[in-house]
Amino acid sequence: MIRRISGDDAYDRYLMHHAQFHATSVDVPAPLSRKAFFKLWQESKWAGINRCC
Amino acid sequence: MMQKRLKTVGWLAIALLGAYALSGVALQRGESINAIWMVTAAVCIYAIAYRFYAAWIAAKVLTIDETRATPAERLDNGRDFLPTNKWIVFGHHFAAISGPGPLIGPTLAAQFGYLPGTLWILIGVVLGGAVQDMVTLFFSTRRNGRSLGQMARDEIGSIGGTAALIGTFMIMIILIAVLGLVVVNAMKHSPWATSTIAATIPIAMIIGLYMRHIRPGRVLEASAIGVILLLLSVLGGGWVDHHASLRALFDHDGLPLAYAIILYGFAAAVLPVWLLLAPRDYLSTFMKLGTIFLLAVAIVLLRPEIHMPAVTQFIDGSGPIFGGKLFPFVFITIACGAVSGFHALIASGTTPKLMTNERDIRMIGYGGMLLESFVAMMAMIAATVLEPGVFFAINSPAGVVGKTAADAIATINSWGFAVTVEQMELLAKEMGESTLFARTGGAPSLAVGMASIFASAFGKSLLALWYHFAIMFEALFILTTLDAGTRVGRFMLQDILGNFHQKLGETSYMPSVILTSALVVAGWGYFLYIGVIDPNGGVNILWPLFGIANQMLAAIALCVATSIIVKSGKVRYAWVTGLPLAWLVLITSTAAYEKIFSDDIRVGFFAAANHLNAQLLSGLLSVEKAAVAPRLIFNQHLDAYLTLFFVFVLWVVVIDMVNICRRFLQGKHVLASSEAPYVKTILE
User: Any CB–CB contact under 8 A between A35 and chain B?
Assistant: First the structure.
């Protein structure tokens, strides 16, 4: 639970999502590395309003 | 049957206990009242409101449909659209909506006594704030997670959309400035606080590097290391404070500290998120949740007495922290914790894209806001357990009570609140500070309140450590809001500039990043600067301005909600959002009117400007005051026009909304509902 809420397991879930939905098609690129995924994940997280007064 | 009867009896008991506790809080006179009654009243009222009112809104007004697929399910992309466990969404949503606002507002409003603020927090959240959050979350979930601005454009028209956009940008600027001011007032001539807060920056960077390069994505272990380093930085600050030469490095006036914050804000907006913002946010979220939990436990264990009177003489408008009568200013001062328009941006941002099922909207939207309201209640308790004399000595600016300790004490005693110079000196010494006078803004008095509660519950000898822990904890997430807000302001500005010159709209184009960050920082930096040089403490000007802006945004969100409810043929339920909307329009308009036209120089912007101008012309001001007077006069004018602009925007949207509802009811053409078509869920 704490791992999930803090985003600690975000990469594991991304791999699962990738395996589940994209593994069957041939032209889909391989999943991102942990490092590249994490960078992307953080950048998209902070691209909008997500902290308030 | 038996079970049903038991349930009815149980809810009746909760209702009676709540009513008993609330009447105790409201009617107690003479003797002091125990904080546990405030907690009891709050919890019972929240429970009843959640069980009955929120459930009724969900079933009748919104007609929540459990069989309908949410955008998270339909548009699942494994990243931002993602069906997520409801408790996880609750955690994200709560972490996003609850910033420093619910801690600061109630502390400032405590100058009216504990009762007005407490009643407004409870009534405001049940009928206003939680309703706003819940309906906005619902309508955004039904519209593929669209933002408030987009929904305003789709449902009311382009004017509403633009108003929401401008409102969001302005509120961000004012909010950051006032939060910066709160941190500056906490750090002023306090080497301990300053060095501890400074240390949080390299700590965040170390954690950022750790999560990016050493152990990518290991959020939990990195945060654990960070929390330990933060606690060490509180201890380290104490060591710096006792070190003669290091001490001088961190002992500063307000102005240099303000410049430091401005520089820091610019750096934070330009640096990559993984280096500073994201790691700081992990630390501040863990700290925030931990500390608030600890505070709740301490209040229940300790059951402190409230020392502030129920109502003080300052309801007549002569309050030292901010000028203005009880009505409308208590409703402007406490926004977060009662009704906060800012939440509508979160409820139409990340949260709707994570909802697995519509049935969780009540828990996340309504329940999340109830929890924030509870945080505001605890801030109110922490402020009012202080002796009122001490509370006013910490929070009254020098321009109101006088510069020397003896002057300040004499003024406060003349109001009928007992406090002595020796008492304040002893308290400052216990807290490890040189002085606690004129630390306007709420953070230091809250820290003193929290430190006394913590110290009584968990160890008396550590008062100074608890005080600086509380300061660090507040500064940590104030700075997170400052970083995140500056960055969002930058994105919004880039978005606008992109319409004129495409390259400026690219978020990774460095010259544009630097230009727009500098513009946003200059915007809030200006208000922060004026706040620091203002002898009346700046909070007196900035906090009401923020409150008006925030309530204006809430009113826009409720306008969007009301128009959707009417257009869906449920005009008989329009009062659910219409009632809080009418109240918000009334209080923002009244407050704005007073801020612009009042003759009281501590309330009216023009009155203050004219008064200062007259003093300047007749040579009554000292040399240093005369030097800054023209800037203060200009600022008072600017603030007056800004307030006028806020009310103008508000009324334009309200009139637009009423027109749309009228046209709909007359059977004329209106913008069609932008609700996404029904798709049956296939999840469980």
Answer: yes
